[in-house]
């Protein structure tokens, strides 16, 4: 029996899981189920990535320990997976003792092999993402390329993992093998990260303690990626005795991840494995994000869609179908209630649901539920039968290539073919003519057997609803195996159907969208208030020191963006004549263009440091600066004084 090992990323339990988290897990679950159906010995792993500064801070804010915090969140993830019928074989928590022990050994081994060394890390650090970035990786506003929030300068003693020894092998892995799916993404990885020279990776931290201690230098904790990525191996028993399946299942057949963590899985993970001299995983399947109104669905943006809420209205399987059907490998997929409901109506209610209910109803109406065994072949039979017989192979290929959207498209092509067959053969006309009974029985049998094959293959994707179809078409367990799905004519000739409840009811689009929008609005978690940490208090000064700064009220007469700069605005100010009447005021350049448009400021009075030595910014002279305060989201807010104060008024 061949083995098949598939993994999801391990999720950060820093908030409630949402539809965005469901995608990878549902996709892996469908593949795992399909492979089990094929007879593979499947290991399907998921879990949670529980260390890091963010978790430590969140727990602290709630007055509980980080472990208490993650325990509660992990329960939420597990509840969702149960609800979505996720058949994982193993669940790893990075706080599990065996994982901790194994990561410590891995870190030590990398150190002993000379791939980890001690240094000091200086760079741009994004606290919410817990990531250091190089200058060139920052976005056009100089902010974090992932969450687009401001970064801070940071420096700390840290251990580094040497990446350069692996550059050549990794480039080959990405460009010359089919490790990466879709392979088109290799170009960006090679051009952005490998060609410029692979930077060594910072793999320890001293600035927080919620992590796995480095055994030989315990003020350091192992930083996220060595801890997190190792899970794929430690969960099988690599460097620990808790499990004993490493030799059996490693290397993984498929790691599935979204694009934001592609780099870690495409470059860093292979490098770690190469350093440990372990075999590399076979495939890395990268998908896009489920977006909502064009943005990645995420708790911090507050646009999360609650899978429980959707599941309650339409059923968990319907949600599974929808997200799998919408997402193409490598591309984003935008979530919208309207698209979802239309998809449910067209594919499930009108397509499959209608096929099942019409076929079963006719078998019931014309034959009292049990088909007679006399047969008469006719037009269109072969076309339908050929489509049905060829389906399994097509789905196999799609599943093997992690193209689940295409797998569902193939299945629904046959559903559509079968519905067309009903229109072509007109069983309701045959039913009126006693002499056409054998032909009618053939038509209905062909339809029932087509439904059997379609629903068998679909059961990997929709495991709860397909048994309801089997019940209605009179299929027994032996008729809905993988083997039976490769053949036509498996149902007994005198099959008995059981008319039942409608499996996929049609939804009134307008009414439902209105209801859904209302519910989602009422249930939507408020966007999280960014946590605000005031800047550190500066050194003490005397009143005389303060008196040196001459703060004045000034009116913004005009403002414009400084060319070639995304950050600077150039303001013309009336300072009450302080700069001398002949100048007509003064010019101040201010780094607030990210937060203010010129027209937001014109006509407003601001506070300036009037005696600041002039400076030139981006080639433009600035005679002073205007006062602004830090905002919780890392921005700046101009301080507006009482607008009735005259220009030049001194602030003391
Ligand atoms: N803990 C790391 C992964 C470590 S794996 C060794 C992590 N966790 S995460 O919870 O932030 O994200 C886990 C996965 O969920 C990522 O692949 C991420 O991109 C995916 N998704 C989170 N929101 C998503 C969408 N809106 N759409 C699709 N996938 C999304 O990263």
State the main characteristics.
single chain; 652 residues; alpha+beta; Isoleucyl-tRNA Synthetase, Domain 1; six-stranded parallel beta sheet; 26 strands; 40% helix; binds 5'-O-[(L-methionyl)-sulphamoyl]adenosine
Describe this structure in words.
The protein is of the alpha+beta class. Among the domains are: 337-531, Isoleucyl-tRNA Synthetase, Domain 1 (Orthogonal Bundle), CATH 1.10.730; 543-651, Nucleic acid-binding proteins (OB fold (Dihydrolipoamide Acetyltransferase, E2P)). The protein is built from 22 helices and 26 strands. Strands 3-2-1-12-13-7 form a 6-stranded parallel β-sheet, sandwiched between helices. Strands 17, 18, 19, 20, 23 and 26 form a 6-stranded antiparallel β-sheet that branches. It has a 4-stranded antiparallel β-sheet with strand order 5-4-6-8. Strand 1 (3-11), helix 1 (19-37) and strand 2 (41-48) form a beta-alpha-beta unit. Helix 11 packs across helix 12 (316-326), helix 12 (316-326) packs across helix 15 and helix 17 (437-458) runs antiparallel to helix 18. The longest helix is centred in the middle third of the chain and has 31 residues, at 337-367. The protein starts with a strand and ends with a strand. The structure holds 5'-O-[(L-methionyl)-sulphamoyl]adenosine. The site of 5'-O-[(L-methionyl)-sulphamoyl]adenosine has 21 residues, from strand 1, helix 1, helix 7 and strand 12.
């Amino acid at each position: 029996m061949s083995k098949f090992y598939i993994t999801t990323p391990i999720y950060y339990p820093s908030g409630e899981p949402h539809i965005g988290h469901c995608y990878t897990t549902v996709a892996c679950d469908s593949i795992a189920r399909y492979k089990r159906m094929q007879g593979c010995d499947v290991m399907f792993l998921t879990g949670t990535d529980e260390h890091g500064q963010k978790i430590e801070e969140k727990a602290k804010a709630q007055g509980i320990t980080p472990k208490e915090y993650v325990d509660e969140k992990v329960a939420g993830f597990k509840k969702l997976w149960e609800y979505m019928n996720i058949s994982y074989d193993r669940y790893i928590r990075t706080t599990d003792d065996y994982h901790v022990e194994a990561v410590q050994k891995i870190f030590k081994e990398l150190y002993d092999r000379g791939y980890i060394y001690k240094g000091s890390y200086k760079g741009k650090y994004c606290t919410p993402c817990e990531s250091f970035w190089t200058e060139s990786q920052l976005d056009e506003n100089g902010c974090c390329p992932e969450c687009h929030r401001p970064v801070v300068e940071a420096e700390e003693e840290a251990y580094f993992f040497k990446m350069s020894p692996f550059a050549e092998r990794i480039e080959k892995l990405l460009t010359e093998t089919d490790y990466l799916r879709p392979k088109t993404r290799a170009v960006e990885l090679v051009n952005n990260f490998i060609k410029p020279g692979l930077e060594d990776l910072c793999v320890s931290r001293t600035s927080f303690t919620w992590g796995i201690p480095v055994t030989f230098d315990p003020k350091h904790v192992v930083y996220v990626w060595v801890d997190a990525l190792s899970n794929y191996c430690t969960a099988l028993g690599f460097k620990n005795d808790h499990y004993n399946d490493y030799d059996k299942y490693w290397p993984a057949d498929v790691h599935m991840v979204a694009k934001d963590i592609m780099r870690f899985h495409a470059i860093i993970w292979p490098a770690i494995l190469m350093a440990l001299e372990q075999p590399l995983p076979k495939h890395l399947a990268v998908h896009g994000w489920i977006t909502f109104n064009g943005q990645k669905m995420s708790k911090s943006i507050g646009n999360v869609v609650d899978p429980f809420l959707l599941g309650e209205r339409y059923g968990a399987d319907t949600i599974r179908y929808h997200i799998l059907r919408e997402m193409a490998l490598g591309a984003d997929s935008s979530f919208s209630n309207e698209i979802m409901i239309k998809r449910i109506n067209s594919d499930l209610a009108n397509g499959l649901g209608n096929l099942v209910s019409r076929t079963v109803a006719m078998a019931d109406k014309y034959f009292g539920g049990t088909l007679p065994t006399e047969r008469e072949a006719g037009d269109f039979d072969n076309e339908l039968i050929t489509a049905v017989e060829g389906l399994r192979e097509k789905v196999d290929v799609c599943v093997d290539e992690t193209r689940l959207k295409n797998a569902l498209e193939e299945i629904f092509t046959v559903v559509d073919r079968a519905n067309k067959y009903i229109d072509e053969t007109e069983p309701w006309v045959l039913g009126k003519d006693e002499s056409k009974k054998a032909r009618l029985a053939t038509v209905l049998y062909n339809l029932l057997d087509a439904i059997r094959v379609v629903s068998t293959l679909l059961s990997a994707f929709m495991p709860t609803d397909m048994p309801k179809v089997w019940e209605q078409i009179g299929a027994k367990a032996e008729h809905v195996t993988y083997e039976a799905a490769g053949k036509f004519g498996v149902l007994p000739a005198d099959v008995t159907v059981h008319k039942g409840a409608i499996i996929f009811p049609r939804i009134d689009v307008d009414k439902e969208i209105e209801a859904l929008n209302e519910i989602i609005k009422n249930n939507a978690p408020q966007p999280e208030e960014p946590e605000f940490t005031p800047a550190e208090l500066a050194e003490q000064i005397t009143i005389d020191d303060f008196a040196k700064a001459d703060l004045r009220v000034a009116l913004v007469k005009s403002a414009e963006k400084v060319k070639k700069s995304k950050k600077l605005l150039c303001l013309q100010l009336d300072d009450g004549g302080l700069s001398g009447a002949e100048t007509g005021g003064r010019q101040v350049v201010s780094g607030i263009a990210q937060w203010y448009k010129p027209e937001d400021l014109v006509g407003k009075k601001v506070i300036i440091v009037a005696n600041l030595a002039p400076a030139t910014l981006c080639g433009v002279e600035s005679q002073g600066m205007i006062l602004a305060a830090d905002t919780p989201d890392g921005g700046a807010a101009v301080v507006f004084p009482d607008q009735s104060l005259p220009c030049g008024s001194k602030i003391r």
